[in-house]
Amino acid sequence: MMKKLRIVDTTLRDGEQCPGVTFLPEDKVKLALALDKIGVFEIEAGIFDRKTEGREYLSEIMYQKKHARISLWSRLNPADVMEACRQKPDVIHIAVPVSYVQIYSKLNKNKAWVEKQLMDCVEIADNFHVQVTLGFEDASRADIGFMIKLAAQAEKMRIKIIRLADTVGIFTPVRAGKLVKEIRSHSSIMIEAHEHNDFGMAVANSLEMASMGAQFIDCTILGIGERAGNCNMYDFIHACESHFDTGIEKRNVLKIEELLSGIMRPDRRNFL
Amino acid sequence: MIRIIDATLCILDDYNLTREQIYHFVELMGEIGISNLQISTGLYERLEGDLPDSMTYYLEMDAVSYMNEAYPNDKKIKYYFTPKQKKREREIPAYQINDMEEPIRIVPAAENSLQKVTGLDKLLLGGCSAGLEALKKKFELKQLILCPENTYHCATAIATLFLQNKGYAVVSTLLGIGNKASTEQILMALHVMERYMVNQDFKSFSRLKCWLESVLGEQISPMAPVLGKRIFYVESGVHVDGILKKYSNYEPYPAELVGLEREVILGKHSGKGSVAFYSKKLHMESSLQNHTEDLLQLIKEKSRARGTAITEEEFIEMAGRYEIHDEKA
């Protein structure tokens, strides 16, 4: 029997971060419902920010979806987490910067600050009874010791899933697989793989992470996303179907690719 | 030693490349540090044997040419890829193997000789360790030239893994055309991860992209790894903020290294940093300093309503309203 693998779609969040790709709220609803229909386990619907896209689209998705979990992405910021929780999604995904580049150079903070913010943010989500998943942002450039420590803390806070985000897309399969193996050897937390395609290895890296025990794989339709994009859902399912069962039919992904191509305005389609 | 043999010219055999196009390509490949090229007999004939000196050449032969001995014998050609057999010193027997389980009889390579394998699309599907072990069981990696194919979008990863494990050489093409691994992706992955060719200038990638676009007669995807025009464009507030502080916060390597430009796009996901960036760029800082938040909301609203990014002209027009308002006040 083939191993089960769950697909997390992030077209509506990371996919939309492809510069110039902008979904209207009704586009997001259409895409989310189509993804729900084909058996995607989780749909990352966006980054909650009332000023950016309002809240109606999310409540519409939550009301109409049948199976998928709907998540909102949030920075490691208690105010943002609180706002996101108020929208009542199934899951809040909190992005935790873990590399020194992100913590010290970008945020001008330190590791103690990250740990403290994490506890505060999770407590807020707990108070709202919203499930939390954590994203280790820039995991491919981070110190493994710090990630293992954070994973242990997360387990204590009853968090069940950690996303390892290859934020700048520099993983090769062996390094990506080793990281999954290392974290799993120190913790029973479940792993979600989030790959970018800067070296054309997003599919291979995701496959290797799945082989090493990651249970969730992040994808986008047509592979859209920041820079060279994310792991392309069709390509990934095509590559993994001899070893894993994602529960998603490839031909149904093609239908959503058509839907997305139709949604994107003609002048935006040439982004792909 | 890492060897990458670029086979782009072979794949484009049917495009009737002119002499000038071929020489230009060879020159650009040299500029990005590639010194091994796979060529075809057709291409050799088009150049009338006048191969540029700067490269090491590998000539790929089809079975008929080989059987009829209808191929050039030229000292400038270092090796000949021959179909499954070796009769002479400089010949390398080439095999097509799609799956390691295939019962193909392969004559083990003699000491100090090479073999070439094309295919192995499925090598990593069951995991890297299993794939690599299966390959090592059948071949001596240091005597193998591997040309992985890309049916499962893993060819670049296979080629990189093979080189990291001391394989003799890989065969790849620009943009991975012909269902191959991609030369530019392998090169940049090794450059970033293994500090390979640490002082090499890769700006000519952008000229190679133009070369390929002119030959193919179509635009390369702006999202294509390494070559895509828009891969260093950035819109979201978090990313713009990070990039403006330090490029390495969100870039795997600097845009300039591969001859590309970074650009801040204004749209639904922009943050205050993007408004500040454009205010500074357009020398409007003083007039807009108290209106960043309002201007950002206008940008987001317009982008959201229209479903597109905001152009620089539109930003100037929006910003102009505040300037006029301030003058009146």
UniProtKB/TrEMBL annotation, chain A:
Spans traversing the lipid bilayer: none
Alphabetical list of PROSITE patterns matching this protein: AIPM_HOMOCIT_SYNTH_1 (PS00815), AIPM_HOMOCIT_SYNTH_2 (PS00816), PYR_CT (PS50991)
Alphabetized UniProt keyword annotations: Transferase
Gene3D superfamilies given in the database record: Aldolase class I
Single Gene Ontology MF annotation: acyltransferase activity, acyl groups converted into alkyl on transfer
Domain Pyruvate carboxyltransferase: 5-254
Lineage: superkingdom: Bacteria
Cited Pfam families: HMGL-like
GO BP term (any one): carboxylic acid metabolic process
Similarity remark: Belongs to the alpha-IPM synthase/homocitrate synthase family.
Protein name per the record: Homocitrate synthase NifV
Annotated organism of origin: Muricomes intestini
Automatic annotation (TrEMBL), chain B:
Domain 2-isopropylmalate synthase/homocitrate synthase post-catalytic residue range list: 226-302
GO molecular function: transferase activity
Keywords: Transferase
Transferase found in the keyword field: yes
Pfam family, one: HCS_D2
Xref: InterPro entries: Aldolase_TIM, LeuA/HCS_post-cat
Gene3D superfamilies: Aldolase class I
Full protein name: Homocitrate synthase NifV
Native species: Muricomes intestini
